[in-house]
Amino acid sequence: MQIIIREYRPSDATATMQVFRRAILETASRDYDAEQTRTWAGRVGSAAGWNIRRMAAHTWVAALAGDACDGDSPDSTIGTPIGFIDVDDSGYIDMLFVAPAYGRLGVATLLLARVKQFTADHGIVRLTVHASITAHPFFARHGFRTVETRHPTIGTVSFTNYLMTRP
Fold first, then answer.
1. In this structure, what CATH number is given to the domain that contains residue 74?
2. Per-10-residue mean pLDDT for the chain, 167 residues long?
3. Residue among 90, 22, 84, 18 nearest 54 (CA)
4. Domain N-acetyltransferase spans what residues (predicted)?
């Protein structure tokens, strides 16, 4: 299995939305209850709105090399997204999600490496993230330190996550 990291494209909106939902409903369900995961996964909005948010940040996707995601493309390296990450100009990582079938195979590490390269190239000196309970150990292994335990809410549903930072 060869994984490529490439820039997000508008045609990735639906596939990355699916990765987001499945990662929450399947992977994060180990750490969050059914009401929390349903509420969280339900916050995707429309494909158009999702695309606007992905394009407003620097977003990359992980895909299987040679897995053409649309038959009209001559580029066999575009691949269907199996994970994605974004970062803004201040170094805030808003999203890092991997499809459950590809979890624990190094996909998130490759995506984070791309963000580290990007931020180093652009003089961004610190990365921050609001890591879920599920993602907390991953970020800790990659040099992020917990600054604060948080309890944000979506409507009436409360969650636990962690403000983490890495110089």
1. 3.40.630.30
2. 94 97 97 97 93 97 76 56 97 98 96 98 97 98 98 96 97
3. 84
4. 3-167
- Return d(Cα 66, Cα 76) in angstroms, integer: 5
Are 163 and 136 in contact by the 8 Å Cβ rule? The answer is no
Range of the domain at 50: 3-166
Q: Are 92 and 57 in contact (CB under 8 A)?
A: no
DSSP code, position 161: E
Q: Which residue in the block uniquely carries the two structure tokens 């652009």?
A: 122
Structural domain total, the chain = 1
Q: Is 155 exposed, middle or buried (0-12, 13-18, 19+ CB in 10 A)?
A: exposed
Q: Of 145, 94, 88, 95, which is closest to residue 122 (Cα–Cα)?
A: 88
Place of tokens 């995961």: 37
- For residue 65 the two structure tokens come to 């090399």
- Residue 32: what residue type? Y
* Strand partners of residue 153: 158
